[in-house]
Amino acid sequence: MSAIKGKNNLIGASIPRIDSPAKVTGKALYAGDIILPGMLHGKILKSTKAHAKILNIDISRALALPGVKDVIVGKDTPCIKFGNWRLFPNTQDELPLAVDKVRYIGDEIAAVAAIDPDIAEEALSLIKVEYEELPAVFSIEDALAAGAPLIHDENKELKSNISLDRKIDVGDIESAFKTADYIREDTFVVHPHSHAYMEPCATLAETDSEGRVTIYTSTQTPYIVQCLLASTLGIPENHVRVMKPAVGGGFGGKMELRKWEFCAAFMSRRTGRPVRFVLSRQEELESGRRRHGMNLKSKVGFKKDGTLVAKDFEAYLNGGAYNSMGPTATFLCGNFGAMLYRYPIYHYRGYHVYTNLPPAGAMRGFGAPQAMFISESQMNMAAIDLGIDAIDLRIKNAMVTGDKIEGVTTISSAGFVESLEKVASETKWKEKKKNLPKNKGIGIGCYSFISGGVFNWFNTQYNFSACEVRAYDDGTAHLLTMSCDIGQGSDTVLRQILAADLGLAVNMIRLTAGDTAMTPKGDLGTWGSRVTLMNGNAILDASKKIKEQLAKMVSIKFNLNVIHDVAFGDGKVFAKANPKYGMTFGEAVTLWVKANRGEELIARGVYTPRDKGLTTPAYSFGAQVAEVDVDPDTGVVTVEKITTAHDCGTVINPLGVEGQLEGAIQMGIGYTLSEQFAMKNGKTLNTTFLDYKVPSAEDMPQIVSYKVDTYEKEGPFGAKEAGEGLAIPTAPAISDAVFQATGYRCKDLPITPEKILRSKGKI
Amino acid sequence: MSAIKGKNNLIGASIPRIDSPAKVTGKALYAGDIILPGMLHGKILKSTKAHAKILNIDISRALALPGVKDVIVGKDTPCIKFGNWRLFPNTQDELPLAVDKVRYIGDEIAAVAAIDPDIAEEALSLIKVEYEELPAVFSIEDALAAGAPLIHDENKELKSNISLDRKIDVGDIESAFKTADYIREDTFVVHPHSHAYMEPCATLAETDSEGRVTIYTSTQTPYIVQCLLASTLGIPENHVRVMKPAVGGGFGGKMELRKWEFCAAFMSRRTGRPVRFVLSRQEELESGRRRHGMNLKSKVGFKKDGTLVAKDFEAYLNGGAYNSMGPTATFLCGNFGAMLYRYPIYHYRGYHVYTNLPPAGAMRGFGAPQAMFISESQMNMAAIDLGIDAIDLRIKNAMVTGDKIEGVTTISSAGFVESLEKVASETKWKEKKKNLPKNKGIGIGCYSFISGGVFNWFNTQYNFSACEVRAYDDGTAHLLTMSCDIGQGSDTVLRQILAADLGLAVNMIRLTAGDTAMTPKGDLGTWGSRVTLMNGNAILDASKKIKEQLAKMVSIKFNLNVIHDVAFGDGKVFAKANPKYGMTFGEAVTLWVKANRGEELIARGVYTPRDKGLTTPAYSFGAQVAEVDVDPDTGVVTVEKITTAHDCGTVINPLGVEGQLEGAIQMGIGYTLSEQFAMKNGKTLNTTFLDYKVPSAEDMPQIVSYKVDTYEKEGPFGAKEAGEGLAIPTAPAISDAVFQATGYRCKDLPITPEKILRSKGKI
Q1: Which end of chain A is less packed: N or C, by CB atoms within 10 Å?
Q2: Alpha carbon A238 to chain centroid distance?
Q3: Is pLDDT above 90 for B8?
Q4: What tens digit of pLDDT does each residue of A491-529 get?
Q5: Within a 10 A sphere around the Cβ of A595, how many other Cβ atoms?
Q6: Phi, psi (rounded to 5 degrees) for B43
Q7: pLDDT (tens digit, 9 = 90+) per residue, A623-660?
Q8: Over the stretch B156-178, which tens digit does the pLDDT of each residue have?
């Protein structure tokens, strides 16, 4: 049995997204579009203080407002703490609503459900909260200063605002540095960054007569939301059903249980009516999750010839008021600090620090954009000091297939050197760099990323990924999966994988995804660029079982000898050596159903990484060159061209990878040049897209990309990730190009015109 | 392994209906309650002629009406005929919309989809149909008369308006009658009868970007609708998803593909928008399906002592313009003619006759109310002539457990004699009958019914019934089934069966039913009183598999010897002999998931009757006594008391059976006394519940019922049907009581005051 190569092979075909027609015609139903009879509208009251005790909450006037059907405060709830790191319960530091104190401006205090959103909003204004203000800390330095207020003083195990640390010690760092010819030590500061997904979060909850809750919610992780929502409500896990409707982007910002999900469910149970929350852009920007700001210090040593000797890396993460996904970012930041190059000796110290800011969480790249902004900048600075071309220096130290990362894993495929060579040749790197016109710059940044994580912080009992495939006598199949398309196109890619393997047309595959009551349990959702590899493997597992059954039908019908391979393609099942011994897929299923006296032909497929260490089953790699122009008078940076060569293993859908790349570059440019939270005493001041400046289509440069040829044996059809890695290299590449154009070396993102002009003494 | 008896045993517990809270609070969503964005409203243009050629249809003015988005006529469709009797394709005589001719007043001709229902209605009035009228026939006599117009002249195999016949020949009838001491031959006429379900039909269809259709429809048979809709649309079966929302009654009237289902789906595919049809009560009564009117002739012979000798039964069914479920009614009418008593010799001739009336279809009892009205009336008349008490005569001839019905089956359980004895003693039958006050009457009628059908007219490839059970580590389970609760309470009973068998509380079972994309394939739906027995058996099959797996966990954990039985009860799994060797259900599932490295514990269960002949796996039995008062001046019959003793095997849910009984009596009283279609030249004149008189709560008599103790070994926990059989005995019982009170013997339903008074010469 094998998938047919050639014209039937869908792997590598640019298939348009299955969800596009509904989205471009406005027919797609997002959580905020769904209406149920009798539905109430919810709003949440948030703290106006960065750090304060709650002395009293008076909801009486809100309750009395006509049209208000329910008002809840923390004490009305079961007061059960939650957090994604279930494996370590004491990291679970959030309550559904604040009870004794608030820890940031935006901390949720109370919720209202009313017959329309305006009444709910008015009711919020009628709730009176009495606070006793406490001293607040916003920076890592202040949070760690002697005498700083302890933000989570209720956790007696914590002696400071460091909620969690992570150490990596590979080799003797002191001795190693003694052998170095060149050592540099840099301190960088990277800023928080908004996911800025197109769709603000929304949740609609309804409750059945026995108290079971169904929520339609904008999420990346239905299973995680199901488990945590059930635990905070104090009901069995399977009394909660989470359904993922169309989702307008996540980027890591929608992978936790959120307060409005709890409030919608809880108030729906109390009122017996559906309750819907739809967040505003202001709410999202004001107190939503964001990428971690970090203080980073890196000491790196080289031999004269450029050979890396050792690295000592330290990261302080400004976690804001709660852990959120900070523990993972703290861990991964350390892992990514050791990636891309062969560091024989590597030390890492990571600290997750509570402050009175809105909590940071997971965001595209998950610790890597920060870790690699400093490491790639250091490579560029070291190259200059060592007098070695920046790309040559990288190639000298680049990880290659078969490299072992001490204590982590063996790299099963790496097209990093090829990526570097490709961008060098395609951009005419050396020639261009030597002949840079005035105010022009060319710079490089690279990346490596994980294809899904292995470390089981959620402590799932189920396989990491699972699916079910049902094959029908009409020549169609049904793929059920808990994987979530949140705009990245996975629904399209997963159908493509199954269709290719079963030899069916893509539109013969019905797909049902992201419904915890119906789709197979335990897939942890969309994050860490895990879907294509993990769910893809689960699909191939199920498909293999289906094919084994159908191959039998052909063998029986045509009396095939055991040596005959049976192939699947063009909607047919046939002897590979002699296709006339064959039948349609539907006919084969019919025979199977008859043979099994009316059973349905169904197979479950699963995937959990085995023998791949604790980080990931497979790493992507890539290199990116940015070309910029900097206006000498205004300091404005224009990114003119981005050239990327990337190794994501086999490309399942080139169109999809292209979309990921373009989106990543847009996000990378924003991160590097224009997006920055304006904060004052813990309050976010820029809460619209007029003030929080996300690059638009007009800001996009020319984009050229090249796929480097690799095959990842752990990936489905050889595929690896292409979702997050591509978001990493843009910042160091632009920064390097800006340095080439202006002499300004950024160690404090973002790169603003003001910083460039100040560096020139122009302001 | 066994379910725990005693306090944990849910079998026999009166558990309130799971759907009641939503229904009584108005929260239940029926198809007509569901709103989708951009939804269009559909209306159907129906024939005003009973029989005519369509010469031309002009839709131009309708199309031009602002707000109209689509207008279709028959020629726009793929013109694929459909019908439930897929096994015999030439019985499939309906088109989605009429093309060349119309065959009854109400035959669907065109459909409109518009932005609101009023515009759609107005558009209908703008469609101009040119007809060439043809001679029409309404009665069986006219339809079979020489020179009658052939209603389906397109079917060249038909030589008359008889679309189908059915013969049963058991024994030599001529010789048998020669041995009889007493022979009577009667001719009866029974009238059509409306299902009068509370919820008029509604369907909402939507189409995805690849042309797959989802319909939410008021149906008893999602799988049948899926298959036939797909075939009429000309698309793969699994490109159609049928979802059954709350359904407000069916009684056989919602078990086919209906024209509005096709039109909603077809126009949704054309317009790309959701399209909803909601029928009015007028439409339902004017041209909806109805129970078959029949002309019946029965010749029956007895020995002097009352022993039955032979029966020769003939039925002509007035089928209306199409076959619908008429073939099944024709078959079953013959089967039911042979039921209840030991007829050593039995002949049957059944004829399904086309007329230009609205098609008759399946309705509660499915041929039995008609067959048993004449046979039970004949028993009552014969008893008088033979001078034997009517109950004694029945007991003498009653079927008992182990009786063989020639060519059909062996009766595996029969509590008929016990039922007769019970009503006799509880009503003080003989005493009361001897001392009847003036204008009072007491009469008896009996029934037997099938617990699901075996004959596979739909030609399904799948098991007759199937389910899936998923067991979870939180101590809950999920039951997925294609069975349909249409108001009869099966969702409650099926959960009860699974909960009892797994030893869980009922509310620990999530139930998902009636969704062809999600729930197991092939269950044929709700008709023929099949759900409790067939799906109940499928559930026990799945439950057994789950229990086998969990029992292993207990055996491993506690090192149990092979002799130990493992029991399930109170949410626990334990060694029966020593319950301390046990754990919670959830803990057992957790162990299983660990043992199976993250798989889900899932089992599919199936049921298809084997070695049970072609009719049914099990028969219910029962007897009913009616007591009436007849006003001598007005002829108005008041039913004062109904006493029923019934054998439905083990009663799973007494409350549910009671509900079925009360509903059946209400329907039976309407059938006998007040409900009658007023027809004029093929047109139904009474199209509201003011004119079509369904009994109300005020018309209900005192009801007393007794359960006779039997155990049906083919049924789940010993259960048989209680849904339809109970609808049968009321008409003959009331008719007999009216005879006792007035001397008027009804052979022409309904019994009206006019008929009673005419029989007395009073008018």
Answers
A1: C
A2: 26
A3: no
A4: 999 999 999 999 999 999 999 999 999 999 988 999 999
A5: 13
A6: -140, 155
A7: 999 999 999 999 999 999 999 999 999 999 999 999 99
A8: 999 999 999 999 999 999 999 99
Is A517 part of the contact surface with chain B (CB cutoff 8 Å)? yes
Residue B206: both structure tokens together: 């939507």
Query: Residue range A77-81: average pLDDT?
Result: 98
Average pLDDT, stretch B692-698? 96
Percent of chain A scored above 70 by pLDDT?
99
What are the start-end ranges of the H helices in B517-562? 536-557
- B338 vs A: CB within 8 A: no
Distance from CA of B112 to the nearest CA of A (A): 22
Q: How many Å apart are CA A336 and CA A356, to the nearest integer?
A: 27
B22 CB neighbour count, 10 Å cutoff: 16
The ipTM, to two decimals, is 0.95
Q: Does A210 touch chain B (CB under 8 A)?
A: yes
Alpha-carbon span A82 to A79, nearest angstrom: 10
Distance CA A47, CA A102 (A): 7
User: How far is it, in rounded angstroms, from Cα A287 to Cα A258?
Assistant: 12
A619-630/A440-450 β-pairing = antiparallel
pTM: 0.96
Judge contact between B538 and B607, C-beta under 8 A: yes
Residues B368 and B374: their CA atoms lie apart, in Å, by 10
State how far the Cα of A113 lies from the Cα of A44, in Å rounded to an integer.
9
* Alpha-carbon torsion (A130, A133, A138, A143), positive or negative: negative
Domain architecture of chain A: domains with CATH: 6-27+464-607 (3.30.365.10), 34-134+198-249+254-287 (3.90.1170.50), 293-455+613-759 (3.30.365.10)
Taking a C-beta distance cutoff of 8 angstroms, is the pair A340, A447 a contact? yes
Q: Which of A530-539, B471-480, B560-569 has the lowest mean pLDDT?
A: B560-569
Would you say B282 and B46 are in contact if contact means Cβ atoms under 8 Å apart? no
A246 DSSP 8-state letter: B
Taking the Cβ of residue B430 and every Cβ of chain A, the question of whether any pair is shorter than 8 Å is answered with no
Neighboring chain A residues of B463 at a CB cutoff of 8 Å: 597-599
Buried b (16+ CB within 10 A) or exposed e, B481-517: bbbbbbbbbbbbbbbbbbbbbbbbebbbbbbbbbbbb
**A430: its two tokens:** 């050396």
Query: For residue A440, what are the CA distances in angstroms to A388, A392, A429, A431, A443?
Result: 21, 22, 13, 14, 10
**A369, A376, A362: which is closest to A328 by C-alpha?**
A362
d(CA B687, CA B678): 9
pLDDT at B78: 98
* DSSP conformational letter for B724: S
Task: Name residues 223-262 of chain B within 8 A of A (Cβ).
Answer: 230, 236-239
- Unique residue bearing structure tokens 């049928």: B242
pLDDT in tens, B425-466: 999 999 999 999 999 999 999 999 999 999 999 999 999 999
Tell me phi and psi for residue A466, to 5 degrees: -155, 160
Amino acid occupying residue B276? R
Closest CA to A444 of A370, A394, A401: A394
Q: Is the pLDDT of residue B531 over 50?
A: yes
- pLDDT surpasses 80 at B7: no
* Residues within 8 A of A (CB atoms), B 446-475 only: 460-464, 466, 472-475
Q: Encode burial over B25-37: b for 16+ CB neighbours within 10 A, e otherwise.
A: eebbebbbbbebe
Instruction: Count CB-CB contacts under 10 A for residue B186.
Output: 17
Q: Give the separation between CA B72 and CA B112, rounded to whole angstroms.
A: 7
The two tokens of residue A692 are: 């929080």
Burial class (CB in 10 A: 0-12, 13-18, 19+), B472: buried
Residues of chain A above pLDDT 90, percent? 97
- Cβ atoms of B671 and B731 closer than 8 Å: yes
